[in-house]
């Protein structure tokens, strides 16, 4: 039984004596395990085979520590972790590349140097320069203008964020957008994608129009999203930042997020596959 959506689909699988739920991600050519019961020694190899058949270059599994040995014996490697992801228990991010070319990255050294610079920097505290801008939660009435903001910011994106129906769907379900507005036009935005079952949320969809950068708008928005997460009772926030982006990684470091790994060629964003740094902040 599958539930089709534009950018991929969820599917339930019976694998031997085990059951698995997966998301087939067409945009990023990934297969992600979203839930399972049974034996990972059955499931993990079957997912690799399924990914190959569907021409998906990467399999991703968020797993508790007790599953590490089973995944490693099936050829998966750990690219990072997210502290407290499972209601306080750490998730280890295991991946397997069915397309070995995707495992290679020519950006590792320069990204490592950038990260080292950020980790050893002590940026001066800076207040956000809001001026006449207003920061508030975005509603469905703002979707059309949000689409304009994101389409002006990204050549490509790992989710169909430039599609109205998708934005309506996620706003009604589990995603909160907070934006800086100039009148009724959003000029900077970020969202909180909440997993209430596991009490975590991903801070994502960060964008600022070029003429408004350097004013600390995203920092203010991210602080307000963190406040919202605390009010809801979430225990951890995490964010995946493009490893070659100084500004986003520096902002997360400044706000107290900890670096916990790098996902190689993980997302198709800005016109190509990019490595993504994992940043985590327990609340």
From TrEMBL:
<dbReference type="InterPro" id="IPR016181">
    <property type="entry name" value="Acyl_CoA_acyltransferase"/>
</dbReference>
<dbReference type="InterPro" id="IPR022525">
    <property type="entry name" value="GNAT_AblB"/>
</dbReference>
<dbReference type="GO" id="GO:0008080">
    <property type="term" value="F:N-acetyltransferase activity"/>
</dbReference>
<dbReference type="Pfam" id="PF00583">
    <property type="entry name" value="Acetyltransf_1"/>
</dbReference>
<protein>
    <submittedName>
        <fullName>Putative beta-lysine N-acetyltransferase</fullName>
    </submittedName>
</protein>
<keyword id="KW-0808">Transferase</keyword>
<dbReference type="InterPro" id="IPR000182">
    <property type="entry name" value="GNAT_dom"/>
</dbReference>
<feature type="domain" description="N-acetyltransferase">
    <location>
        <begin position="133"/>
        <end position="283"/>
    </location>
</feature>
